[in-house]
Amino acid sequence: MKVATILAVKGSATETISPAATVERAAQRLRSARIGALVVSSDGVHVAGLISERDIVHAFAKFGRSLCEMHVRDVMTQSPPTCTPDETVHDLMARMTTSRNRHVPVVVDGALAGIVSIGDVVKSEVDEHTREVIVLRDMYLARR
């Protein structure tokens, strides 16, 4: 299965935030959208970084209450791993595990085309295995 299949199911809409936005604003956006990460982008097209709940928690432990007024660019993950729609979900899963990133922006010709979370990857794997079980069960029952 390809990353494009995941995007076809979940859609390519991606929440972005400016590097100049405050971390407080990023946290509010994460909460209101019920997501775990925002792509950091000045223009909504080019990926400058990623800010996740994990980034905010780590920064809070380091900076305390002053974090709220800090800028996203000061605590974001710079140069996060990216993928393309043509990559396999299996390869993406391995990269996410190795890099310990739970969110990976999808990029086509340098432009943001979506984002895939570890939850999306797990769901796609479960769905694929479920389809395989159904096919095998149907083949078994047809032989009886």
CATH class: Alpha Beta
**What's the overall geometry?**
elongated
Radius of gyration: 18 Å
Question: Which blocks of ≥5 consecutive residues have pLDDT under 50?
Answer: none
Query: According to CATH, what is the topology?
Result: CBS-domain
Distance separating the two termini: 31 Å
Structural category is alpha+beta
The CATH architecture would be Roll
Largest sheet: 4 strands, mixed
Summed up, what is this model?
By secondary structure, this protein is α+β, with helices and mostly antiparallel strands.
Describe the structure.
The protein has 144 residues and is an alpha+beta fold. The chain has a single domain (3-143), classed as CBS-domain (Roll). The protein is 47% helix and 17% strand. The chain has a 4-stranded mixed sheet with strand order 1-2-3-4. The protein has a two-stranded antiparallel sheet with strand order 5-6. Helix 2 links the parallel strand 1 (16-17) and strand 2. Helix 4 (89-99) packs across helix 5 (118-143). It is elongated and about 70 Å long. The model has no long low-confidence stretch (mean pLDDT 94).
